[in-house]
Amino acid sequence: MDSSPPFKAPTPAALAGVRVVEMGQLIAGPFCGKTLGEFGADVVKIEAPGAGDPLRNWRLIKEGTSVWWQVQSRNKRSVALDLRQKEGQDIARQLIAEADVLVENFRPGTLEAWGMSPEELHRLNPGLVMLRISGYGQTGPYRDLPGFGAIGEAMGGLRHLTGEPGRVPVRVGVSIGDTLAALHGTIGVLTALYHRKVNGGQGQVIDVALHEAVFNVMESLVPEYSAFGVVREAAGSALPGIAPSNAYPCQDGWVLVAGNGDSIFKRLMDAIGRPDLGAAADLADNAGRVARVHEIDAAIGAWSAQHSVQQVLDVLGAARVPAGKVYTAKDIVEDPHYRARDMLLTQETRDGYSVEVPGIVPKLSATPGTIRNSAPHLGDDTDAVLTEAGLTAEQIALLRSKGVIQ
C-alpha cells in the first residue's frame, strides 16, 4: 500500500526547520507534538516496537487503528525504537543531538535512568529545548507519584466544580487535563525557542505538571478563598456570580443563554416578554441580578420551555443576545460555520480510507497550519530517519535483527 504523504503545504510554515523528537505517548506530550507539527515542525515520534503508542488502540478502531490516532499523529514520522536497550538509548541520543526540541511525558526519573538527564542532553546539545510533562512536576514531594490527566483535574480544582450541587463530581467529557498541559507545554516550547534565538542559542527545560496546567485556568478560585474564605462549589450549568448565564430547557433540547451584560439583559427580558425585569432598578447591574438569579432563571426557563431550540435561537439572535444550542458531533459536522472556517477537513489515512477530522487552531494569516502527512503506521519512518542520522543500511539491518528497531 502506498504510504506516501497525501498532503502538501501550500504556504510557508511558521516552524519550518524546527526538528522535534517526541518521546511521549497517549495524550499530553503527543498533543504538543501534534500542534507543533501542524505549523511545520518536523516531528519524529519514537515508539516502542510491538504495539507502539497505546493511543493507536484507544476508543473506536477502523482498519486496525484508532481514528483518534489519525488526528493526534498527523504530520509526524514514526520511529520504532526500543529505549530499554542501550543501543536504542544511544540512537535516541543521536537523534536528540540534532533536534531543537525534545517532548517527553514519562514519570520523573525515567530519562535519567536511561542516561538522558537534562544536564547530559544539554552537554550533547546546548540549544535543546526540553519539554517535560508529568503528573506533579519534576520537583516537590509528589514528583514520583503516578499521575494521569483525571488526577490532575481533581488536584487542580476543576473536578470539584463540575457537576450538579451535592452530587458526585463528573469529568468534563474529554481529557481536558492532558490537553491543557499540552497547550501550556506548547507555549513553553515556543517561548523557549524565541529566547534561544535572541539570547545566544541556549536551550532550557520546561517543567509542566498536569495539575498546575489545570490550576492555571481556575480563574478566581484561590483569590476568593484568600480574600473572603469562600470555597467555590459546583453549580451545574450556571456561572456562579454572573447572571443570567445558564442552560435553559426547550421543547426539544437545551439552549445556553449568556445575558449577563447590562444592556444585553434588558434586550433579553424584552425578548422573553418580561420588560418589568429589564426595567427593574435593582437588576441594572450584575450584583443586583446575582441576588435575584433564581427568579431570573425561572423567568427565562418558563419562556424557553414553550419553544423549540431553533425558535429560541431565532428570537434571541434577532435581539442580539448571545445564545447557542448544545452541539453533538452530528451538529458540528452539519454546521455550515464549521465548514466555512475550515474546521472540518477530510484526511486520507495510510490505511486507504478518508475520515473527517478537526481543522487547525489557531489560524495564522501568513503561515497557517496544514496537514502535510497522514498519521504513520508503527515504524513507517524508521529507516529514513536513521539514514538521515548517518546510519548505514548495514547498521540499520543489524539493529533490526537485534530487535532494537522495527
UniProtKB/TrEMBL annotation:
Extent of the signal sequence: none
Name the Enzyme Commission number(s) assigned to this protein.
Answer: 2.8.3.16
Q: Which UniProt keywords apply?
A: Transferase
Q: What class of enzyme is it?
A: transferase
Pfam families assigned to the protein according to its UniProt record, in alphabetical order? CoA_transf_3
The reply on keyword Transferase is yes
Q: Which GO terms describe its molecular function?
A: formyl-CoA transferase activity
Which protein is depicted?
Formyl-CoA transferase
**From which organism does this entry originate?**
Acidovorax delafieldii 2AN
